[in-house]
Amino acid sequence: MLNASAGNLSLEPIEQPVWLPGEEALYSFWRLDGSLGTVHPARVVTDDGDQLLCWVLDGTPIRTTTSPDGRSYREMPLFERFNGPRVPARSTWRGTSTLRLVYEHRWVSVWWFFEPDGTFRNWYVNLEVPLGRDEYGVRRVDGVLDVEVFPDGTWSWKDEHELAAAMAAGRFDRWHLKQLRAEGERMIALAEARLFPFDGTYCDAVPDPKWALPSLPDGLLRL
Length: 223
Prior knowledge:
- This protein has helices spanning 163-168, 174-192, and strands at 2-3, 8-9, 24-30, 36-47, 51-56, 61-66, 87-92, 98-103, 108-114, 120-134, 137-149, 155-158.
- The chain is mainly beta.
């Protein structure tokens, strides 16, 4: 688990927590080598231990990683995105708030994106390796490959061009890729059939206006 105050890190699982509506939970992206990447603090809508529904609010402070000279992931050439040293940095989730459904035991989370005026824009199928929970939140490994789904039921794979570089750098192997792609294909079938989560559910959702922005524990910037 993560001791946010001291910055100590343990990968040992703990008794699975469940969060109440309005509580804060950390949506953390780890790497298979045990290092920590991006962390998005979120506000919980519902959680039953199997499915966590939460908001990452516009303006939320987040942890990201950059190259030692301060370049972000997207500012690096492809060959460098999955290689080389990284340093933690504080950033901000900007644009619009996103609603996220995190499946505890499946290799996917689904994100609802909205326009600044609150109009639903599209779904983003974030393919991930599930790593369970710690006392602070859910832990995932980003699978690089994703699927974008639009309100009319059309869809497209995302970031396929990054897969070879990620695998060459050892981020995951062919077995992981097989599971990730299979999960993506399963979600595409749901989208084409207009079944949950692509049936319009939550497309009119709004975060509770009384919520304050979640906090980012200082200890995360020392890991």
